[in-house]
Design goal:
This protein is α+β, with helices and mostly antiparallel strands and 130 residues long. It is 29% helix and 34% strand.
């Protein structure tokens, strides 16, 4: 193969590898003294309603059986929730962090303990550089 073709194929591979969106792992639940579920991936979308609930939608849904295996009774695996009235300051910080991650196309890690309205209840978020 000529050098030009090898260079072209190398550049093509690099372009495809760097332009492919990050695919998240399925949220995983852990049985510990303080059971929790964790998601690491992209913020697919964020939803806020007048009932004071924020939903963060996962890139890859949670298997509901995983949550029930650690004692969480959830009905919906595609998102996790925050009830704004529980902790308005945290809700504001969470929302701004999730928006920053979405705008910069960076993955987030969130942990969830408990449930709210059929969704896992988010209690922490962090943003790591890719």
């Amino acid at each position: 193969m000529s050098r030009r073709i090898l260079l072209f194929l190398s550049l093509l591979f690099l372009a495809v590898a760097t332009s492919t969106p990050i695919r998240a792992a399925t949220p995983i639940c852990h049985s510990t003294p303080h059971n929790y579920c964790q998601y690491h991936g992209m913020v697919k979308s964020i939803y806020v309603n007048s009932g004071n609930i924020i939903l963060l939608y996962f890139d890859t849904p949670l298997h509901i059986n995983s949550a029930s295996s650690v004692g969480f009774n959830v009905s919906f695996g595609e998102a996790a929730a925050i009830y704004i009235n529980d902790n308005p300051e945290f809700a504001n910080l969470f929302y701004s962090t999730a928006l920053a991650a979405q705008a910069s196309n960076q993955p987030v890690t969130i942990q969830m303990r408990g449930e709210h309205s059929g969704y896992l209840k988010i209690d922490r978020i962090w943003l790591s550089k890719q």
